[in-house]
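HUMAN:
Just now I want nothing more than another pair of eyes on a protein record. I would be glad if you read both lines and explained how they fit together. I have put the entry right below:
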Amino acid sequence: MKDEQAGNRLGSYLRARRELVSPAETGLPPGGNRRVPGLRREEVALLAGISPDYYLRLERGRDKNPSPQVLESLARVLQLDDIERTYLLGLAAARPRAPRRKRPERVPARVHQLLAHLQIPAFVEGHAFDVLASNPMAVALSPRLHPGQNRLRSLLLDPEEQAFHQNWEKATADFIAALRTTVGDDTDDPRFVELVGELSLASQRFRTLWARHDVRSLDGGTTTVHHPVVGELRLHRDKLPIDDVILVVYYPDKDSDSDEKLRLLAALSHTESADTAHGRPADDPHPRTP
C-alpha cells in the first residue's frame, strides 16, 4: 500500500497493470533479457502514443491530471475491461479531500424483519464484507455467516471456509478485486486500513492478489459450495443495496437437486434449534420425558 498511502494510486495502478500484459499480447516481440514482467514503460508509452518521459511522470505521480484521451489510450494498451477502465478514469479524477467522519454501518429494523421471513440463506454485509446480520438459514449454510464475521478474512484464513468453496482460487481473486472496487478512493477509511493491514500480514494469497490491483464487480452470480452435511450445492447469489448496506441472498434453481438439499438443511436446522430450545443436544437420540 506504499504508493496508495503516498497518494500515488494512479501510478501504482498503471505499474501493476502493465506488469500483467505480455509483449506478445500487444504484438511486440518478446525480446531478450527482460528485467520486468509484462511491458516496459517505454513500450506502454509507444503503444499509447505518448512520450516515455510523460508516462514516467504519470507512474511516479508527478503528473496527476492526464487527459481523458491519454487515459483511454492507456486503457486500450493495458487491455482493461469496462470496470477496470472506469476505475482508471476515477483514479485520475480523484482529488484530495478532507477526512470524513464515518457513520457506523447499521442494519435498518425493517431488514431484520425481512431476514426473519426469508426461507433462503440471507445476510447483510458492510462495505468491507463484514457480516452485520443474518438469518438462521445463512448460518446453517455456513457458520462463517454469523454476525461479527468478515467474509474475506474467513475465505483467506479459515480452512473450513476454503474447503467450502469449489473454486477457492477464483473466489479469493473475485473478493479481493471487489474490495478494491468497493473501497474506491476511501483509502483512509479505518475499517479498510485495518482489514488490509491484517490480511497483508496473515495471507500470502492476499498480498499477491492485492498487488495486482484487479478491480471487479461482485454483484450477482452462481457459485458451487460443498456443505459438510448435505453435500454439493449450486446456488445463485444476488446483492441488493439497502441504504448503506447490502442484502445478500443465496437460492437454488426451483425443484433442483440443490433445492431439495437446501430444504433438507432447513429441516435439520429447525430440528437442531428445537432441540436446543428444549435443553438437550441436537444429536441426543433420547428425548427428555416431560
User: Anything to note?
Assistant: The chain has a mean pLDDT of 86. Strands lie at 122-125, 131-134, 221-227, 231-242, 245-251.
